[in-house]
Design brief:
Elements (H helix, E strand, L loop, with lengths): L1 E7 L4 E7 L27 E7 L15 H16 L6 E6 L10 E2 L2 H9 L8 H14 L5 E5 L9 H4 L5 H7 L8 H14 L9 E6 L3 E7 L2 E5 L20 H9 L4 H10 L2 H6 L4 H9 L3 H24 L5 E5 H6 L1 H9 L10 H5 L6 E2 L8 E4 L4 H13 L3
Parallel strand pairs: 1-4, 4-6, 7-10, 10-12
Antiparallel strand pairs: 1-2, 2-3, 5-6, 7-8, 8-9, 11-12
Helix pairs in contact: 1-3, 10-11, 11-13
């Protein structure tokens, strides 16, 4: 099946076309050679083409200007058609950030589903409106082409109430939906299965802590293959120290700052765009922070210490939550590429019997791999994520469940 994967933003559309060659009985997609790719070997997952259309709706009158999402899709259509050579797309899979409490799995999109996603806009004002724009643009251009919504929050719908509920008056939940939702679920679900198979454990028996570390970062407790706790909450602001986000903070600080004259928009800007590594070290890029720390910059060293400590605390807590983790798994940009940050975190976890193989940790590879020593009490893995592949596979399963 030829699946067009779309990640629609308010001013950009990231796209990718995948050829999903087939599925075995356990639902894992296979390439033409029959290899699932879940044993640690690297494969491209059937990528035929990919790209990014940006500056949609901008004021630039030049030849690269893109008026709206409809025009962006025309450009994507031209790029895709040049590659497919007469073959036609079978379906479109959309990354949708917020599925609220309703959506616990990928769904075939119709008008009612589109309206339901739109009703969740207040919970993800920077993401869901853009996702809806992409869905409607596809419906207008290719009205008979099946579309599937794959939700970042869906993997976390298995959280027990004691994990998702906040200790605030019940009315805030029943009226406004204030609860823990969790994010990065598409990535975490994909990585969890690959990590389990790498360790030759059935995914439904897998207990692990999965750390998705990029500019946005979260950590998830996986028990028996399901999410039972996660660091991001009502929004992606809660939890770890991130590139520009503060993560966990005493709520009274917000009250204090309001009384000092900062308004709601100012608080949002402060906590989401000016905090985290950027606030501590002056740069939100982990590579730059590590380089500065190596050069003796105290602010960068402090930022790394705070960020690694916060993550190690979560890993320790989630090790308890899952009843004993079989693995700690690093993924996403920082998790896959920053051996230095992985080492800083692992050094704080020696009480759990974790021991890294220094050479394996330092080695650069695009393959899923174990980086702990044979005698480490808990395996430590690096598993590259591939959200587009996960979306394509989920879309194919919905459109052609047999």
């Amino acid at each position: 099946m030829l699946i067009l994967v779309l990640n629609s933003g308010s001013s950009s559309i990231k796209y990718q076309v995948r050829d999903i060659a087939g599925r075995n009985d356990d639902g894992v997609s296979r390439n033409d050679d029959g290899v699932s790719g879940d044993d640690g070997r690297n494969d491209d997952g059937g990528i035929l083409t990919e790209g990014l259309i940006d500056r949609i709706g901008g004021s630039d009158p030049g030849p690269d200007a893109v008026a709206d999402h409809a025009e962006a899709l025309d450009r994507i259509d031209a790029a895709v058609s040049a590659v497919l050579g007469g073959r036609e797309l079978d379906a479109v899979g959309h990354r949708v950030v917020h599925g609220g409490e309703r959506f616990s799995e990928p769904v075939l999109i119709n008008n009612e589903i589109t309206r339901a996603i739109e009703r969740l806009n207040p919970l993800a004002p920077l993401h869901n409106p853009a996702n809806v724009l992409g869905i409607r643009a596809i419906a207008a251009k290719w009205p008979t082409l099946p579309q599937v919504a794959v939700f970042d929050t869906a993997f976390h719908r298995t959280l027990p109430e004691h994990a998702w509920r906040y200790a605030v008056p019940d009315e805030l939940y029943s009226r406004y939906g204030i609860r823990r939702y969790g994010f990065h679920g598409t990535s975490v679900g994909y990585v969890s299965v690959r990590a389990a198979r790498l360790l030759k454990i059935q995914p439904e028996n897998f207990n692990a802590v999965i750390a998705h570390l990029g500019n946005g970062a979260s950590v998830t407790a996986v028990h028996a293959g399901k999410s039972i706790d996660t660091s991001m909450g009502f929004t992606p602001l809660e939890g770890l120290v991130m590139g520009t986000r503060s993560g966990d903070i005493d709520p009274s600080i917000l009250i204090f700052l309001l009384r000092q004259g900062l308004d709601a928009d100012g608080l949002d800007e402060l906590l989401n765009r000016k905090s985290g590594l950027a606030g501590l070290a002056g740069d939100n890029d982990m590579r730059s922070v590590v380089e500065a720390a190596d050069g003796g910059a105290e602010a960068a060293q402090t930022a790394l210490s705070i960020a690694s400590y916060r993550l190690a605390k979560y890993i320790g807590g989630y090790h308890v939550a899952v009843g004993g983790a079989r693995a700690v798994v690093f993924t996403a940009g920082i998790g896959e590429n920053s051996w230095r940050f992985r080492a800083l975190v692992a050094d704080r976890l020696t009480a759990l019997g974790i021991s890294l193989d220094e050479a394996a940790n330092r080695a650069h590879s695009k393959q899923a791999r174990v980086i702990s020593t044979p005698d480490s009490a808990i395996a430590v893995l690096v598993v590259p994520t591939d959200e587009e592949r996960a979306i394509a596979e989920a879309t194919a399963a919905v459109v052609s469940p047999g």
